[in-house]
Amino acid sequence: MKDPSLRRSATLFRAFLREQQEPERCYTLLARDAADQVEAYVPVKGRVVVDIGGGGGYFTEEFRRRGAQSFLFEPDPAELGAKPPQGSVVADGYLLPLADAVADVTFSSNVLEHVDDPQTFLSEMVRVTRPGGLIYVSFTNWLSPWGGHEWAPWHYLGAERARARHERRTGRPAKHTLGENLFAHHVGSTLRQVRARDDVDVVSARSRYWPFLAGAVTKVPGVREFATWNLLLILRRCP
Ligand SMILES: C[S@@+](CC[C@H](N)C(=O)[O-])C[C@H]1O[C@@H](n2cnc3c(N)ncnc32)[C@H](O)[C@@H]1O
Fold first, then answer.
1. Model pTM?
2. Residue 207 sits in which domain range?
């Protein structure tokens, strides 16, 4: 898959639509795609790659398949599932049990919207990345059509209402609650905060999945909050 291309976006979108029925296929594809995105900047073979909030470990496994020494840090044992990658660590991204500057690449996919304080989370990613190392961060922003996760797109009418509607329709409690395990982060404010940091350079800021105008869409205030869908930041730790 080439990033960006229409075929790639369509393949990912189709897999995402069948995520519930075929999670294995969906996350394997997504992991391959994300690893390609990382390798557009740095080959991972022989490098130390730290995957933070990596769930069941699809990304960690993909980095290992490509020859990286990859390690998964995931705070929720339920997310790790029955067969996490060997050596996975139950740990919170705010406080990683790692020394400073040990990683060539730190990686977090779709985690930032689940943490209350993204800048502290990012600081911890920066701390464990070696100077010159790469930081991959992507998240679904609140005003994205998928911002409300399982209760999207009804979050546009308010989180409480959307959550209640989801529960009424499915008869099951929703997985996410705004302010508890899902947080309303925005493209504009995140970009401003990251650009103001003196410990990272922003190498790329773009929509993770769009086939065209992926970078341009993040530059237009207002529009970017709806059209980006998922913001991908590639950062380099300053020497
Ligand atoms: C939507 S899942 C994403 C899983 C995987 N990274 C992916 O892209 O498919 C969000 C993950 O973030 C994790 N998470 C939530 N808060 C976290 C924190 N403070 N530190 C690290 N991970 C966290 C959750 O446990 C969950 O595994």
1. 0.96
2. 6-141+185-237
